[in-house]
Design brief:
With 467 residues, the chain is of the alpha/beta class. It has two domains: 1-37 and 424-467, no CATH class; 41-410, Alkaline Phosphatase, subunit A, CATH 3.40.720.10. It is 40% helix and 11% strand. The protein has helices at 2-20, 27-34, 63-68, 93-100, 119-128, 140-148, 187-203, 211-220, 224-237, 249-262, 283-307, 375-387, 391-397, 414-417, 427-436, 454-465; strands spanning 41-47, 57-58, 80-81, 87-88, 104-111, 162-164, 174-175, 178-179, 182-183, 269-274, 314-319, 340-345, 352-354, 373-374. The protein is globular, with a radius of gyration of 23 Å.
Length: 467
């Protein structure tokens, strides 16, 4: 019944209501999307190899930082100051702008108990959301999507639930009944592989050189047939409105994500990746290049979303399998460590630096930091706050009941959005909001930026959904 109400409201907002107030070019389409079940998108950026958190978020007023890293530290003058004591790596200029705009959160000290320093094992732990001593074959996102699609795979959703930009589907997207997403490097290549795979099954011919591999892939991912046309059409319909930097693999991946979102693909989650973070030697130069590529890619992606007026629908999140050691090694690099910061970007984030600063005196037996935030609690908070996943579902996704950390701005209370003061939040309040859209009336400026715009609209919709 609730979904039917949403659909009706979306239809009305996109038609009569917006024409009546002359907002068809702005409020109407966005309103229809915002009240749908498929509007919000999570983009996960995997920093593969173990990103060095201490040189990403720099504690430039802490002498212990410089003592631990006499050769590879970032100087106080180089760091992009966020607070009187902390700043970003000097290459992260776009991240600094997001921070200044109130659209970036840095969550410090994310990790898990009894950390594993193996790339492969720690990656599995992060992808499955398991304990360090627990081995799971399904991923945290796979379990989430299974909770949303009980008929899968016999009944498939119209669009892929998730898209992993890469040759192999991430373990995070595997469910008990198979893949809960698709791996995609190039839309045309994807369509070709699907079509050739289908031919293999239909006529028994095995084209070389990868026929047997295609046969296997097609048999275990038969649902890809349904999605080939949606992916192709979305990629053709969507267009990048900014220029992405060349020679940057992460930028290429994010440009495709922006095209697919703009083109109407209704996938909820996209995964992209950047490799090279295993900086055991010559870290200063190598990490500098990685940070530059990361900054260029994310900056272009955010600008592209803004050009499409899609920025309010997308939450970005970075993950890495571990941080680096506190102390530099003899090769001017760092070895495998423990906890590290995560980035969140988007118009809805609780901007700022979350969590306590690294405590150089509170370390484990190897001299590395203890974690402050369990990454599984972070995952659960994202699902709860971004996708409105209730507690009973979260408890089925994660092995223990996770506590929550604030990632998004708090939801508005009734008094803030009951514009006509009748004691309830309803369609009449939305009518008042549309009349003020584009103005600077403080009553309707829900995000406090001095104007009534799309961000205010999305905040109103959040309150409307949870009324």
């Amino acid at each position: 019944m609730k979904n039917a109400t949403r659909g009706g409201a979306g239809f009305a907002l996109g038609g009569f209501m917006t024409r009546a107030y002359g907002r068809a070019e702005a409020v109407g389409p966005l309103a229809a999307a915002a009240l749908s079940d498929t509007d919000r998108v999570l983009v996960i950026i995997r920093l593969n190899g173990g990103n060095d958190g201490l040189n990403t978020l720099v504690n430039f007023e802490n002498d212990a930082y410089y003592q631990a890293r006499p050769k590879i530290h970032i100087t106080k003058q180089e760091a992009l100051r966020l607070t009187p004591t902390q700043g970003l790596h000097p290459q992260l200029t776009g991240f600094k702008e997001l921070y200044d705009e109130g659209q970036l959160m840095v969550m410090q000290g994310v990790g898990y108990p009894n950390p594993n320093r193996s790339h492969f094992r720690s990656t599995d732990i992060w992808m499955t959301a398991s304990d360090s001593s627990e081995f799971l074959s399904d991923g945290w996102l796979g379990r989430y999507f299974e909770s949303q699609t009980p008929g899968f795979p016999d009944t498939l959703p119209e669009h892929p639930l998730a898209v992993d930009i890469g040759p192999v589907l991430s373990l995070a997207l595997l469910g008990k009944n198979g893949a809960m997403g698709i791996a995609l490097r190039n839309p045309r290549q994807f369509v070709y592989l699907v079509e050739r795979g289908n031919q293999i099954i239909e006529d028994g011919k095995i084209p070389s050189p990868a026929g047997y591999e295609l046969d296997f892939i097609r048999r275990i991912n038969f649902e890809s047939l349904q999605y080939s046309s949606q992916v192709r059409d979305a990629a053709n319909k969507g267009a990048n409105r900014v220029e992405y930097p060349s020679g940057n693999s992460l930028a290429n991946q994010l440009s495709l994500v922006a095209r697919l979102i703009a083109g109407g693909l209704q996938s909820k989650v996209y995964l992209v990746s950047q490799g090279g973070y295993d900086t055991h030697s010559n870290q200063l130069n190598r990490h500098n290049t990685l940070m530059r590529y990361l900054n260029e890619a994310v900056t272009a992606f955010v600008q592209d979303l803004r050009q499409h007026q899609l920025q309010d629908r997308v939450l970005g999140m970075s993950i890495s399998e571990f941080g680096r050691r506190v102390k530099e090694n003899g090769s001017a690099g760092t070895d495998h460590g423990t906890s590290a910061p995560m980035f969140f970007f988007g118009t809805s984030v609780q901007a700022g630096i979350a969590g306590p600063q690294p405590n150089f005196e509170r370390v484990d037996r190897r001299g590395d930091f203890h974690y402050d935030h369990d990454f599984r609690h972070v995952y659960a908070s994202v699902l709860n706050q971004w996708f409105d996943v209730p507690e009973n579902i979260l408890s089925s996704i994660f092995s223990s009941n996770p506590s929550h950390v604030p990632i998004l701005r708090p939801k508005l209370d009734l008094a803030q959005v009951d514009f006509n003061a009748d004691g309830k939040l309803d369609f009449n309040d939305f009518l008042e909001f549309t009349q003020a859209f584009g103005s600077n009336e403080s009553k309707f400026d829900l995000d406090g930026d001095g104007k009534v715009g799309f961000s205010d609209f999305l905040r109103f919709v959040d309150a409307y959904r949870n009324r």
